[in-house]
Amino acid sequence: MSNKNPLISIITPCFNAEAYLSQTIESLINQTYTNWELIIINDCSTDNSLNIIKDFQEKDRRIKLYNTCRSSGSPSEPRNIGINNADGEYIAFLDADDIWFSEKLEIQINFMKKNNYDISYSYYEKINWSGVKNNRVIKTRKITTFRNILKSNSIPCLTSMVSKKAIGETRFKQIPQEDFCFWIDILKKGFKAYNMCVVTALYRESPSSRSSNKLAMFKGYWNVIRREQHINFVRCCYFMITYSILGFIKFIK
Fold it and tell me: What angle do CA 136, 139, 204 make, to 5 degrees?
């Protein structure tokens, strides 16, 4: 394809995702935008995930497989492996149990190229573990900067797309809320992220997911802004209040 249709690298960590992995990959194969590569990092899965990936590989050469040497316990290391091996001008993230709408990549890359944006994201809709919708659309702020992301993470990883230029040497850290810290590290370079303000993905909500443990989320958030970003104590307390309020609003949706 020409420069008007740049290569997009999609990074998918996978650990024991056999139940929904096929549906996730198919949502990518069905994209109207076709110049992409899927980098799946198998994180020592013990179920049938590896065989599912290999079956798709045989049918589509755009799918690439990497394996970790040991189970990492979080998406950080697999995502970093993906970034390090990505050939695309742009990078997007899709977890192994989430789903993209078929026009997601086409809408997003056009949005970014037209406006010369380096980072974009969108709304998404929550579904339960069985895939049932419940009109739970999550809408986040229209423009995200380093200053306002400290109040709450408004860049959903499953809808994000970022230029390789903006990522540079930034990588995911092996900490709770690693995606939150990742976006802060990029935005503090001076970049801004822009919301397309349309729903482009389905987020599968698990009762046992990390996001279901609210106390752990609060601790992880504090760790990011206080220890990783070195925000002073008073400002951290202020941001903690705004994070709690915005988090509660998001939780009840």
Answer: 45
- Residue where the block lists tokens 């995200």: 144
Nearest to 99, CA basis, from 179, 155, 28, 149: 28
Strands (E), the chain: 8-14, 36-42, 63-67, 90-93, 99-100, 119-127, 133-138, 143-144, 161-163, 193-204
Instruction: Measure the CA–CA gap between 181 and 84, rounded to whole angstroms.
Output: 18
- Whether the predicted model's global pTM rises above the 0.85 cut: yes
| Tens-binned pLDDT, residue by residue, of the chain (253 aa) | 446 899 999 999 999 999 999 999 999 999 999 999 999 999 999 999 999 999 999 999 999 999 999 999 899 999 999 999 999 999 999 999 999 999 999 999 999 999 999 999 999 999 998 888 888 999 999 999 999 999 999 999 999 999 999 999 999 999 999 999 999 999 999 999 999 999 999 999 876 554 557 778 888 999 999 999 999 999 999 888 888 887 766 655 5
Angle, CA of 182, 185 and 187, to the nearest 5°: 105
Q: Find all residues with CB under 8 Å of 133, minimum gap 6, and list them.
A: 125, 127, 202
* Residues 177, 209 contacting (CB under 8 angstroms): no
Tell me the C-alpha to C-alpha distance, in Å, between residue 114 and each of 7, 118, 148: 16, 11, 25
One-letter identity of residue 185: D
Joined together, the tokens standing for residue 170 give 């930034």
d(CA 134, CA 239): 30
